[in-house]
Records
---
Amino acid sequence: MSSYLVTGGAGFIGSHLSEELVRRGHRVRVVDSLVTGKRHNLDHISGVEFIEGDLAEMPVAEKAVAGMDYVLHQAAIPSVPRSVNDPIRSHRANLDATINVLVAARDAKVKRLVFAGSSSEYGNTPTLPKREDMPANPLSPYALQKNAAVVYCQLFTRLYGFETVTIRYFNVFGPRQDPGSPYSGVISLFATALLVGKPPTIYGDGEQTRDFTYVANVVDGVLRACEAPKAAGEIINVATGTRISLNELLKVMNRIVGTNLPAIYSETRAGDVKDSQADITKAKTLLGYTPIVSFEDGLKMTLEWCRSEIATAASR
Ligand code: UD1
């Protein structure tokens, strides 16, 4: 049994990591500011220690890392448009908090920190799929903050010998992804729209593509990264290695739900990346990672979850 701190553990991806760690018999502590995370995301998991606090405050970071073997640093304000609208708030959550967690974890002699990187760091690369050795080209404050945090992680490994690994996520989706804000991930927004019979909105022409990754796949990648012997100091894409356009995504989701709702098209969002698809060779080599849940199976499970959330809300 090891002890794990999951920062942002009351959020979407963090709660899935916490659940899997508990299932594997580990000790789990969560720290979350509850700005985007929800306390009830952890209700079904027993034995998780919970600290409410803002990691941009150093004492919170110090208290959170004390006695931990591993830190899974997931806490963030995870939205491109939100960072465009409020760059200072997202800088504080995505970067000020990260430097505190890095320093505190290094000083507390944590064995390894795994950081949640983002495919947005690549921006619009001239070629696909995107490989980890391609230069970053951030198109939004969010992408820039994530990239600066990754460079900090690598620097901490080189400079202080503190082991860090960045797992670069590509449009993760699944149950517990909050559809309740215009900044929510597109799959959660499409799912809710289709299930309540409203047309979803597509920003731009819908021909932008994404490597949508079911959350169980990234949980597997992150937990592998804690142990993988050659991963320290590395950035590793964890995704499916495929891509689908938003127009195609909507078709697939309409088919699964049994609807035929057309999209309402609106202006392209500022900071939006055109195409995104991961090269996952490095994850295969360094982590022995391969996606365990297919895109379509993941969509079905996500839609099932949304359906039950809508039914629960209606019965209140
Ligand atoms: C970006 C990152 C991703 C990161 C995430 C955090 C890229 C390629 N990906 O996701 O790694 O984890 O931010 O939030 O930069 N859209 C619609 N209708 C909607 C909502 C969104 O058409 O109702 C469009 C967006 O304009 C975008 C696509 O769907 O083109 C995906 O949007 P979203 O789910 O918000 O994620 P990204 O911004 O791609």
---
Amino acid sequence: MSFDLSRFHLGCPYYPEHWPEARWAEDARWMRGLGLTVTRMAEFAWALLEPSEDRFDFAWLDRAVDVFAAEGFQILLGTPTAAPPMWLARRYPDILPVDDLGRRRNVGGRRHYCPNSPTYRTLSRRIARAMGMRYASHPAVVGWQIDNEFGGSGSARCYCEHCVAAFRTWLIERYRSLDALNLAWGTVFWAQHYDDWSQIGAPILTNNAANPAQVLDYARFMSDSFVRFQRLQIEALREVVPADHKVTTNFMGLFTPLDSFALARDLDWASWDSYPTGNVYRWGSQTRNPGDPVPAYAFDVGDPLITGLAHDLTRGLKRAPFWVMEQQAGHINWESVNTLIRPGTIRLWTWHALAHGANGIVYFRERAALPAQEQYHSGLLKHDGTPDLGFYEVAALAPERALMEAIAAQPVRASIALRYSYDDLWALQIAPHRKDFIYQRLIFVWYAALRRLGVDVDLVPPGADLAGYRVVIAPTAHLMDVDEAEALDAFARAGGAVIVGVRSGAKQTDNAFTDQPLPGLLRGLIGARVLHWGALPDGERFSLASPLVTLGDGGAGFWVEALEPSPDVTVLATYRDGPWAGLAALTEQTHEHGRALYVGWYPSQAQVETILRRVLPMQGVPLDPELPAGLVLCRRGPYTILLNFTDRALTASVAGEPVQVAGRDVVIRRPPYKESE
Ligand code: GAL
Ligand code: ZN
């Protein structure tokens, strides 16, 4: 039974350790009857798998695996390192992480480990290898999830003695000499010069701000620490499992403390845990700008733009179909308000994920748990074992499965690349300069505008291969190096359009300011110089004059820059008042075959739409008419998928024809295609 990531799969995790063994077979049966063919097990079961140090007990998991194998399931096993067992933490308390107040974290929750603890690394490698050996030849075991949600539960940063030691090693590899480090960090400022590597510590508990280059390097270092911790386990598995076993980890969408692109490099495929109603609360302020109201339906079904951005980011991690390794299938338990779920929602989420490129959807979880931390979290079954809403909705997908499989065989082909940089995100967190200048919010303005115009988009890291795209958008390309600047130049010369926004090219990759006129290394590409830049207080705006109808609406506020274009550059917007009246705010330089635009203020979504309506058609990217709020349009191959997240009917026009979509419903269109697909 080969495990084919190009095909469509539905599944549900199973926690055999949560239920009496006598119940397992019945659970496997109803799950299978529901059309589920994949399960995931064991990601928190270390205490049962290794009840005391170096004494393994796989018998119970063998039996659970066999029960599900007998029903025809393909099984993913989680390495259990997200939950260090009690004996381990008690015997080796230095595996526990230290927080930014210097306090050691306690056992009793989960993810209480330091990825740089030598003991934890050794024991993690050992359990991963032992599991790998045990299940290498089990025909139903097809793949692995490494750990669970790296960085979750507040575990992305550790400041313990192991981390500080590993940080010094990491710095030696990066800078080679202390002179280079001192120069890059600017330690001459505030007398921070290091004359011995051992003087370098973690950037916490400082009076006044810690050194910004050090803070950025610490973020990179912690991210790398999890990359190395994950790699240790992947290598342990790879030594013993067959080559066709596939390896993933479950990312967390818009979670920002770790670089998901870097973590994904070592994986066979990417997956994430999608909890739309919770994400409205936890990511609402990371996406919507102040004053942009959260649509009421978002509290019922999640904000489809937040969910969509996370789907697109996860697809971008490997530029390939991804999975939703945990799909919310009822209400959750962990937000301030855990909204009840309305009929149609779980089906809608399933289609939404598929439309964005998901080829596997695993509903979390089988049944609501009776004891312990997540009692108020729904499963497909209620606490009493009878079906809950999620169960009925997954069952109702049966007649749609054939179409889902056909669509899953199709690629998402985006012609727009939206640059997404964790380094920029962290650098702007360290120095936002203006309250609420949040990297992800700026990304979201562009993302929301693209989606409203019905345009599919890939999220790509800095330095990504840009072949095949027609437009590259960097809402800010804050940290810039020569290679990337040259690649953007080449892209524009070859016929692409590059759109960059405020604060671009301002810094070098070590987080020091460039000594060149802004936008630094992007000056040639843009053909303009930033003369002035700065923040405006809430409510203050400069008005704009522009030949693009509606671009000026609302003016420019929040963050503004005045540009001095070269003579051959087109000015698309000018400040009309304020201290920079008459100076350019938006420029466009034509290159050999393409173009480059600089957007010199923090734009509104409507202004971005105006800019896109100019640039995209010039680049041969067709635009659908604007979609009403709550209606999402995605394309996979020849299929156009329309999803209505509101509870009343909405209409869109697709290829010139009006298409009505009922509330919380999905409509799929497959126009006749000439070429063979
Ligand atoms: C996820 C986690 C699961 C479970 C779930 C509850 O973040 O991976 O183990 O806790 O949340 O929503
Ligand atoms: Zn540590």
